[in-house]
Amino acid sequence: MKRRTGIVIIAALLAALLAAALAWAAFAPLRAAQADRRELLFEIPKGTWERRMKGDKTSILPEQLTLTLGVRDVLLLRNSDTVPQMFGPVLIMPGQDFRLPFGQAGEHPFDCTAHASGRMTVLVEEAPAAGLARLRWRLHSLFNETSANDA
């Protein structure tokens, strides 16, 4: 009987800890304390242009990237290839980084020579409001690294 009571107490404590963690995740402010934490890095690997010229349709970048205002709202493209790459109107030379900050939510299409389709969209979302929306956002960020948002 004593053992069963101990198990019930432990289960109740674990449930209370889980509830407290979920409440924190739902209501704690979002922040990106350091400027570099606001960046979402995508690297164009060496040999990308060569593979594309041989007819390889493998995408280096996803069709769509998702950023969140005030948390992770700077796209950082790193050209590790041996040839220049175009992203929108910008020519990114080999070995060069290009930082593109976003200050407005919306869908932003770009021409992109490193992408198999030649196009890529950056979806910039508003920071989620406190409550269930923020909890969902944090859980999604935790389990979906391609969104790579700071939880």
How would you sum up this structure, described in words?
- The chain has 151 residues and is an alpha/beta fold.
- 29% of the residues lie in helices and 27% in strands.
- It contains 3 helices and 8 strands; from the N terminus they run αβαβββββββα.
- It has helices at 2-27, 48-53, 132-143; strands at residues 39-44, 64-68, 74-79, 85-87, 90-92, 97-101, 106-111, 119-125.
- The longest helix has 26 residues, at 2-27.
Question: What's the helix and strand layout?
Answer:
Blueprint: H1 2-27, E1 39-44, H2 48-53, E2 64-68, E3 74-79, E4 85-87, E5 90-92, E6 97-101, E7 106-111, E8 119-125, H3 132-143
Helix pairs in contact: 1-3
Q: What's the overall geometry?
A: elongated
* Beta-strand content bin: 25-35%
The helix/strand order is: HEHEEEEEEEH
Distance between the termini: 42 Å
Number of helices: 3
What structural class is derived from the secondary structure elements?
alpha/beta
Summarize the amount of helix as a percent range.
25-40%
Largest sheet: 3 strands, mixed
What radius of gyration results from the CA coordinates?
21 Å
Enumerate the spans where pLDDT stays under 50 for 5 or more consecutive residues.
146-151
Q: How many DSSP-defined strands?
A: 8
Kindly state the mean pLDDT as a whole number? 81
Order of neighbouring strands in the sheet with most strands = 1-3-6
